[in-house]
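Shall we go through a protein fold together, starting from nothing but its sequence? Please make up or recall a protein chain and show it to me in full. Go ahead whenever you are ready, and we will take it from there.
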Amino acid sequence: MNRKVNILVAEKERIISLDLETTLTEWGYAVPEVTCAGSAVLRAVRQKHPDLVIFGTDSTESMQKLVREIRSRFSGGIVLLVDRISEELKNLLVSLRSVYFLPKPFNHEDLHRLVEKALLDQAN
C-alpha cells in the first residue's frame, strides 16, 4: 500500500493557506499541518517530517535565512510562493537543492505542475 505524500503548508495569508490545504487534499496529498511562516515552519518540519514544504514569503531577506535553516534540517523539496525575487537571490536559493519558485498570484495548474516536479526531482 502506498502512503500519501505529506505536504507542509506555511502561509501567513489565511485565505491562501486554506486554498492550498483544500486544493492539495483534493489532489490526493496529505496536509499534516498548516502553519505561519517563520519559526513555526522549522518546528513543523522537525515534527511532521513532510515530503515537501510549500511556504509563502514576502521578504527576500527572511526567505533566504529561513530556506537555509529548513534545508539544514530537511532534504525534501521546497516550493516558495513569492511576491518578488531577484535573479541573484533566486540563483543562490536554487543552489541549495530542490528549491522551486512560484510567483503570487498563482494558478492551480502551475502549482500542480511545480508540486509534481518537486516530488519527481526528489525521487530521482
